[in-house]
Give the backbone structure.
Amino acid sequence: MFDFPTKLPDVRIADPMQAPALRWGVLGSGWIAEQFIASTRAHTCQVFAAVGSRSDAKARAFAQKWDIGTAYGSYDALVADPDLDVIYVATPHNMHYEHVMLALRAGKNVLVEKPMAMTHAQAAKMAKLAQDKGLFLAEALWTYFLPKFDVLDQIIAAGCLGEIMSIHTDYGEYFTRDHRIFDPKLAGGPLLDLGTYPLSLITRLMGIPAQMVGMRQMDKSGVHGQLSLIMADAFGHQATLSTTLYGITPTNAVIVGTQATLRFGSEFNLPGPFTLSSADGTQALTWDEPVGRHFEGLYYEAAEVARCISAGKTQTPKRPLAQTLDLIQVVDQVVDVLGISYAEAGL
């Protein structure tokens, strides 16, 4: 007989301000790099020592804006800096493979924005090089570094949900036509961007699907504008995913188990509340926290990376490379099943 828990687990994440201060080099000077720096500076003691961009002018402008001491007009110069402990790769995802390999070959630890790579073959080469060199490598899928996901991981590990029967997810945002997500040359479309959040949740909980069917709609820009998938594991347990560039959706998720159901009270991938309810709906526990955006959450991954590197670890249990490799393998499946092409992005 299942006993519904009387309380939720406590958060096990240490104070981010207590994480050892590392010297970071930022490879790329776009929007996500700015968000990462702002969040990490506000909530940790990490040091942003250098930035590298495609030109001296861009690097200097970014360094001045963010009060970074050293600016490099090439990525090669950045990764060659002997005073840097870790490189944060924040370039568009079709460039991740080249830039991560560049940093690893230079002997640098790496945190790379999601998705780590565009194909499983690329990701596997990154992971092998990091392993061969004894370097830290992680995908910056920041959701899984948040306190609420530490609590969720404990709930799932304790078997509170029972057997997970289905997972239902969506993610939609509105983008103006000049956004990079509509650019085929930058591997646009939702799959490698918005879609990594629901797809990673599904693979994290159910593994690599044994079956997959779906549909995609092409946009006039040449990228896929939206897609929907139904997946099943070897036992027939199901997962659904829909993602779109055309408007804001609830961006929610429901995890249905034989003993309990987990519902998110806001966007599942952001800081915010969730409720664990018994299967019959008679009992419930709620994790309550304000809904947050990038500024309120990106620093957790920076602090975790600093703790891991300082302890001599080459991976983080918050986002192990095996989970990242599973995600990219499923991305390969989606690309094949839906006939998505990234030829203009260099694949």
In short: Residues 28 and 90 are 5 Å apart (CA to CA). The chain has nine helices and 14 strands. The first helix runs from residue 31 to 43.
